[in-house]
Write a structure and sequence with these properties.
Elements (H helix, E strand, L loop, with lengths): L7 H31 L1
Length: 39
């Protein structure tokens, strides 16, 4: 099994991308509840 060589910059970029995708998924999932709470 090869070790994956990540530069800190790449790792940070990957983590940011993953965090943004997760955030978007959570937002999309919670959106109906949020909208109904506002109305």
């Amino acid at each position: 099994m090869e070790a994956i060589n990540f530069t800190p910059k790449e790792l940070r970029k990957t983590m940011w991308a993953a965090a943004m995708i997760l955030l978007l998924l959570v937002l999309a999932w919670r959106l109906p509840e949020i909208i109904s709470a506002i109305k």
